[in-house]
């Protein structure tokens, strides 16, 4: 959670008041997404105060934190939880809880692609203004602030994404080479284990139609009119990156390559990226202009560069610079990337909210100091 405090000083430079100006947080999406079969469980958990539900615990904890710290405004992020105007949606539940806690809110779905990031990432953002503090500290109402921020100011911040390659390291860079070598060492170590120990590649698709991944791949090949076993793409068998992949992921690349061959024959652009983490029958793919949604466990294969994207590159695709890259591992960077807010989207929301707020003339100097502090945090 990010926080910025407004501290008021007396003429003797003694702190006389300290209050939270702004905050930002995410919370568990396990049973919140409208795409989840279990989405109804969140409403039940909220009603029953079910401490076993991670979605209940993290949302309830977030709301309690906002009540305790009493910020002037804050931003929350999650997956699409449904329209707040639909009384049956989780969005309506969340909106009502925040309203009861004293916050005016607006919910908006935003795509990272519209804020300079070539990534297919859609997330719900909840903007909230503290009604009591706004009445005491601001010259315009929470509704006026939120409406202006969402409808007038935020659209100004939208911009086309940069090319994907602008976010990727050179294939011969130390970071890329070191990650390939690390993966090779891990694969070599796994190959030395006994056959009974090598079960990690058999579990991912175990609950899907077709049973284990090998059976599912065979059925998928038959349904697509492909010969079985699949032939691995020409030129990849000697690829050092490809050699580090488990057999399941290698076959997913083969499936996507077959699809690319069909697209090329039809004069269509081939897919450039595929997230190998998912099963073969629902592999996220994308063209050269955008990368599939960056996820904590994502293993994104670049067909142009014939390698995986590194965790640090995926952080970059979230708009996050890695000045401290040497301090964290590739896997840590990948997990951070999958859980992080898209930085440019959050920056746009913060600037829209700040620009929408009107401060009484008596507070202008103090307000400008806190706004300047927050902008310095946003812009680095």
TrEMBL record:
GO annotation terms (biological process): methylation
GO MF terms, alphabetically ordered: methyltransferase activity
Keyword set includes S-adenosyl-L-methionine: yes
Coiled-coil blocks: none
Record Pfam families: DNA_methylase (PF00145)
Stretches the record annotates as Disordered: 177-201
Entry keyword set: Methyltransferase, S-adenosyl-L-methionine, Transferase
Gene3D superfamilies noted in UniProt: Vaccinia Virus protein VP39
Record-linked SUPFAM superfamilies: S-adenosyl-L-methionine-dependent methyltransferases
Keyword hit for Transferase: yes
PANTHER family: TRNA (CYTOSINE(38)-C(5))-METHYLTRANSFERASE
Record protein name field: DNA (cytosine-5-)-methyltransferase
